Amino acid sequence: GGYSVVAPLAKLPGYKIYRITPSGYEVAVLNVYAYPFNLTKFRQALAYATNRTLIAEKVFGPNYTLMPYDLLLPSINSEGYGPSAIPNYSYNLTEVKILMQSLGFKLVNGKWTYPNGTPVTINIIVPSDEPDSISVATLLESMWDEAGFTVTVTPMTEASVYSAIEHGDYQVAVYTDFGATGPVPWFDFYSQQPGNYYASPSLPPFNATYGKLLAKLESLPYNSPEAKNLSAEVAKIVAEQVPVIPLYVTYNWVVASTCFYWGNPANYTGIFSNELPVQMQLWPGALYVVHPIVTSTTPVHVTASTSLLMGIAAVVIIIVAVVAYLLLRRR
User: Fold this and answer.
1) Residue 28 and residue 125: Cα distance in Å, rounded?
2) Which helix H or strand E contains 328, and what residues bound it?
3) At residue 251, does pLDDT exceed 90?
4) What are the tens digits of pLDDT across the range 111-146?
5) 146: which DSSP letter?
6) Could you give the 3-state DSSP secondary structure of residue 201?
7) Coil, strand, or helix at residue 66?
8) How many C-beta neighbours within 10 Å does residue 174 have?
9) Does the CA dihedral 238-242-243-246 come out positive or negative?
10) What predicted TM-score, i.e. pTM, was given to this entire model?
11) Could you identify which of 158, 227, 258, 264 might form a hypothetical disulfide with 220, taking C-beta atoms 3.0 to 4.6 angstroms apart as the criterion?
């Protein structure tokens, strides 16, 4: 998450570390079009075998936020676009055993086999230029192995990962998804499979009801009451069906002067707006709230030129943060 990189700078006098704009989320995409991942209970079993909290703590570090299973940012859920309650699939190996046995799988010498006795093997592909994703895949390998699955991890180029997903030539893919910052709440509810932008457009929706509701949802004004109700229905299906295992929200970190008011993270104003990374035209508007923090009782007159300079400085900070994050991701 980059926190360890900027944390030492926050110790400088007059500066503070700010967590700004989520830039996406870490996700494990499951190939819902291939056996046994086309079985809902099998996907749920993998969810129960995944200790998301441990992954977030070890890979992202402090101040992490788990991505809900409905794939909506917590801030979007709080605005009424998500269901009132969703399963969270807390780490539970007993539930794994119950679900797998209900499907006819057998636990032989601590390892799961198909009903015909063939071992259940899972291969995780991951971009070789995403160190965080490789760490996540390695932890999943260990966790799922403990749950009784035989797991391997295959790093490959980013292009190869996305090509494998498009052609359905994979079982599980771990990578950083960058859609979570979209201004429309259902930005990651893609037509074929939520959270999977790279699925072939020729594929049908992973769930028929999901496809029908999403088609209707996309024709509505996104802030209308009807859209919120439909979004909650779609999100509930996503959470219950587990087409992907969402892990944690990825954030950008910035060290900036405490002499300025940069906005309010509680209501996502200023540099804390969710939409800034993907909506560059919104940057000027986000800077309207930025102003010096006056600690003196002496009246201070801020001229137009001063406001302009402050705005330019804030724009530079945002640009540097976004560019730095993308450069780190591409390495």
Assistant:
1) 10
2) helix 304-330
3) no
4) 999 999 999 999 999 999 999 999 999 999 999 999
5) H
6) coil
7) strand
8) 26
9) positive
10) 0.77
11) 227
Which pair of structure tokens corresponds to residue 1?
A: 């998450």
In the chain, what are the helix, strand and coil shares in percent, each to the nearest 5? Answer: 40, 20, 40
Q: Give the pLDDT of residue 76.
A: 82
Token pair of 327 as six digits = 């450069």
Give the confidence band of 92 by pLDDT, cuts at 50, 70, 90: very high
Burial class (CB in 10 A: 0-12, 13-18, 19+), 160: middle
> Between helices 208-217 and 225-241, what is the axis angle to 10°?
160
Q: Which residues pair with residue 121 across a beta bridge?
A: 150
Q: In the prediction, which pLDDT does 181 show?
A: 46
Answer yes or no: is pLDDT of 267 > 80: no
Q: How far, in Å, CA of 29 to CA of 171, rounded?
A: 8
DSSP-assigned beta bridge partners for residue 172? 30, 124
Bridge-partner residues for 152, per DSSP? 123
Distance (Å, whole) CA 217 – CA 186: 9
Coil, strand or helix at 265 = coil
Write the Ramachandran bin of 194: left for phi over 0, alpha for psi from -120 to 50, otherwise beta: beta
For residue 100, what is the enclosing H or E element? helix 93-102
CA–CA gap between residue 300 and residue 284 (Å, rounded): 23
Q: What are phi and psi of 25, to 5 degrees?
A: -155, 155
Q: Which two tokens stand for residue 261?
A: 């008011």
The strand pairing partners of 18, in sequence order, are 254
Asked if residue 316 has pLDDT above 80, the reply is no
